[in-house]
Amino acid sequence: AILSNSNLQNITTYQTKFKNSNLSGCDLSNTILKNCIFTNSNLTDAKLSGSDLSGANLSNSNLTNAKLSGSNLLGANLSNSNLTDAKLPGSDLSGANLSNSFKISQHIKPNLKTVISLDVIFQ
Question: What is the dihedral of CA 48, 117, 113, 37, to 10 degrees?
Fold first, then answer.
């Protein structure tokens, strides 16, 4: 699906498949996207602040410069994703899988201090 630059604020959906989607620049602020599948998707410059992405699969996705401040990423799969300049202050990454994610920048590592549980997976 091509949803780039769409305004999808405040939507609620569970287990929806967004595989191979172009969501670049999309505004998904304050959404509930529990257990949704975003594998191989482009989320460059996406706005996901305040969103609930618990259990979401974001593996192999491009999250360059994504705004994820205050989001719930509890148990999310971010493996093999590009997190260059992703913004995560105040986000919960408890149990998140960040294995083989690349370009984990200073915007992410310092924010792990705000996570309730530091059982984030790095390999």
Answer: -20
38 in Cβ contact with 56 (< 8 Å): yes
- For residues 48 and 28, the answer to whether their CB atoms sit within 8 Å is yes
Exposure class string for 67-101: b at 16+ Cβ within 10 A, else e: bbbbbbbbbbbbbbbbbbbbbbeebbbbbbbbeeb
Mind giving me the DSSP string for 36-102? -B-TT-B-TT-B-TT-B-TT-B-TT-B-TT-B-TT-B-TT-B-TT-B-TT-B-TT-B-TT-B-TT-B
Q: pLDDT per residue over 56-107, tens digit each? A: 999 999 999 999 999 999 999 999 999 999 999 999 999 999 988 866 554 4
